[in-house]
């Protein structure tokens, strides 16, 4: 744009301006290598050669019309307030239009139909192998799967795609994998990760990217029907240990404004599916707080019963303490609720108090049973028990009798750097709290500054010559306490291991830390390969997968290596990312030196992890 401006404006003589632009390019980009300088100079020449005059018609004659900024039908608040904010008319809203307590409804991102994609993933049911990988990796919950009884297809749109669902638990079901055509960003991650191929044409997969406008209207009709299909009852599933079972559950984190192909959001979506309406999230400021709570719409959603995760954003530096505070407050509420149930036990319906207090809340069916007991308790408190001492207080606290899952969430800038002292304090507390670190290895939200998670040889702001020291091994630091569950995961490399780690962390009664490799545009990769790139990170040993399970008995091995010995060199992996490749272009000698050290880091770390994997537990920490 700059050469075009000076070529047209006459502010400076054309050749003088262009000469200054070229000199500026050579000065600013020469440290990134001659190839980068040549590409920028070529861009200047190409911009000038393609400069064309566009004559505007006297009046608009297009047949295209802009759609409404929101979908119909919508709740009253969305219609009166959210829609006008999205349309850029917020300054016309009176103060009286906003809730007096400042609360906004959740699950409103579904009404903001952006339709920004040029291509859509189209499902070929004849090739699908029912694995669920496309749904689990989707950064925006824009591709979903449902298994349902065949009778539900009555009234389906013409050519609504479906196939028999192959599963031992859910028999006689039909399967549909459906895209949300106006919410999909067209990143292509689902197609890249899809393993199902045609035997006749190897390049043909069960998902393929097609021109969006050719399919959008039909997919809108299909998506509307898909949403009316019944949601999967988690109580029907004996466990959520299979990817395809987890992905049948409704995501309660959907259609966020994160970057196309984001490596962070699939983990949050999976959390919302596994722990659903009993999920509590304390979120550090960063990318996850921006796309997680960016009004006027929010991606945190509700189930058909009107319940969903509870989410709160804290400051950058104190999120771990903030989350621990939520846990302590909840523990106090639980104690008080249980005390009051005990006091009123003799007045309640037979066995209700005993069942409420003794319920073993493991698994979706047990949680559902406890919810029914709580509803029975509430009905009694509002009816026959209304005049009982403390009934009003117990009515407020009754929902605390249902088991919750608290997760403290943030990026590596928070966990490794600014909030690291608080994180360490929480891990040392022995409390039943879970921490999820979305590790992009830079401060992604503020422009890509280096953090203590930035790897050796990685170029970032404040590490322009490539970081000279290895990244902090946060997992090993946490595991040294002995009673902290620790997992290092990468969804694109091993979705089953990620799923298992999250479930194990939730089940462990003490502190848990899950460090999740999150690909980012700051890495300088094509984000449609976001998840398959994670596979290469694991293959190279750059990101080994493991779980440290402190709850094992003596003479068992708590450290489990979940990835194989590295089979790809660090240099080969690194050259596929701009953050490493730019160092090789700008300073080949330093790049060779740091690449060699990085390879040595990988080999030394792998030897250490192999030794840890062979060590048996000798002391059992009974109290966590």
Structural summary, described in words:
Strands 7-6-8-9-13-12-14-15 form an eight-stranded mixed beta sheet, with helices on both faces. A three-stranded antiparallel beta sheet has the order 2-4-3, covered by helices on one side. A two-stranded antiparallel sheet has the order 1-5. It has helices at 2-9, 14-29, 34-49, 76-86, 133-137, 189-193, 212-228, 243-246, 265-275, 287-290, 319-344, 352-358, 364-382, 391-397, 412-418, 420-427, 474-479, 495-507, 530-539, 570-574, 578-586, 588-613; strands at 119-123, 143-148, 163-164, 174-179, 207-211, 279-283, 310-313, 405-411, 434-439, 442-443, 449-450, 485-489, 512-517, 546-548, 559-561. The longest helix is centred in the middle third of the chain and has 26 residues, at 319-344. Helix 21 crosses helix 22. The protein has 624 residues and is an alpha/beta fold. The chain has five domains: 2-49; 71-89 and 104-113, no CATH class; 119-243, Alpha-Beta Plaits; 321-401, no CATH class; 440-613, 3-Layer(aba) Sandwich (Rossmann fold). The termini are far apart. The protein is globular. It contains 22 helices and 15 strands.
């Amino acid at each position: 744009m700059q050469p075009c401006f000076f070529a047209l404006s006459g502010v400076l003589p054309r050749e003088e301006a262009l000469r200054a632009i070229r000199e500026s390019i050579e000065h600013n980009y020469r440290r990134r290598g001659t190839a980068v300088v040549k590409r920028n100079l070529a861009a200047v020449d190409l911009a000038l050669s393609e400069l064309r005059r566009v004559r505007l018609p006297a009046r608009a004659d297009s047949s295209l019309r802009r759609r409404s900024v929101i979908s119909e039908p919508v709740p009253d608040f969305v219609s009166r307030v959210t829609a006008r904010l999205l349309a850029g008319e917020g300054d016309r809203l009176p103060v009286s239009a906003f809730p007096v307590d400042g609360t906004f409804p959740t699950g409103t991102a579904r009404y903001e139909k952006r339709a920004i994609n040029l291509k859509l993933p189209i499902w070929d049911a004849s090739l699908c192998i029912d694995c669920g990988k496309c749904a689990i990796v989707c950064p925006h919950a824009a591709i979903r799967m449902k298994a349902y009884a065949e009778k539900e297809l009555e009234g389906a749109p013409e050519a609504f795609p479906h196939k028999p669902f192959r599963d031992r638990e859910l028999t006689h079901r039909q399967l549909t994998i459906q895209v949300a055509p106006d919410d999909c960003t067209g990143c292509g991650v689902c197609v890249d990760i899809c393993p199902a191929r045609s035997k006749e044409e190897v390049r043909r997969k069960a998902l393929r990217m097609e021109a969006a406008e050719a399919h959008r209207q039909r997919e809108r009709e299909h998506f509307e029907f898909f949403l009316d299909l019944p949601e999967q009852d988690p109580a029907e599933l004996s466990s959520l240990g299979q990817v395809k079972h987890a992905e049948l559950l409704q995501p309660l984190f959907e259609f966020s404004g994160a970057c196309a192909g984001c490596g962070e959001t699939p983990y949050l979506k999976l959390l919302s599916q596994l722990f659903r309406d009993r999920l509590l999230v304390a979120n550090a400021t960063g990318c996850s707080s921006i796309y997680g709570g960016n009004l006027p719409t929010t991606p945190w959603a509700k189930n058909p019963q009107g319940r969903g995760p509870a989410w709160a954003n804290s400051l950058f530096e104190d999120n771990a303490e903030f989350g621990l505070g939520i846990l302590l407050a909840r523990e106090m509420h639980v104690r008080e609720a249980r005390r009051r149930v005990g006091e009123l036990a003799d007045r309640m319906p037979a066995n209700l108090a005993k069942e409420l207090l003794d319920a073993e809340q493991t698994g979706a069916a047990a949680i559902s049973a406890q919810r029914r007991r709580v509803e029975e308790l509430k009905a009694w408190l509002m009816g026959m028990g209304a005049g009982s001492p403390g009934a009003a207080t117990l009515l407020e606290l009754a929902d605390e009798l249902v088991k919750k899952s608290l997760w403290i969430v943030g990026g590596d800038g928070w966990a490794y750097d600014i909030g690291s002292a608080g994180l360490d304090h929480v891990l040392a507390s022995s409390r039943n709290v879970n921490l999820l670190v979305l590790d992009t290895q830079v401060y992604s939200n503020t422009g890509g500054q280096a953090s203590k998670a930035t790897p050796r040889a990685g170029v970032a702001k404040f590490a322009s010559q490539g970081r000279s020291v290895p990244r902090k091994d946060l997992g090993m630091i946490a595991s040294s306490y002995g009673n902290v569950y620790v997992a290092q995961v990468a969804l694109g490399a091993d979705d089953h291991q990620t799923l298992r780690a999250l479930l194990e962390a939730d089940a462990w009664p003490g502190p848990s830390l899950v460090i999740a490799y999150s690909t980012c545009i700051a890495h300088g990769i094509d984000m449609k390969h976001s998840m398959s790139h994670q596979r290469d990170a694991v293959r190279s040993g750059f990101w080994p997968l493991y779980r440290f399970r402190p709850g094992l008995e003596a003479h068992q091995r708590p450290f489990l290596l979940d990835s194989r010995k590295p089979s790809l060199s660090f240099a080969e992996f690194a050259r596929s990312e701009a953050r490493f490749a730019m160092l090789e272009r700008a300073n080949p000698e330093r790049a060779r030196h740091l690449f060699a050290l990085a390879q040595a880091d990988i080999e030394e770390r792998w030897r250490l992890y192999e030794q840890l994997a062979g060590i048996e537990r000798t002391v059992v920490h009974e109290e966590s």
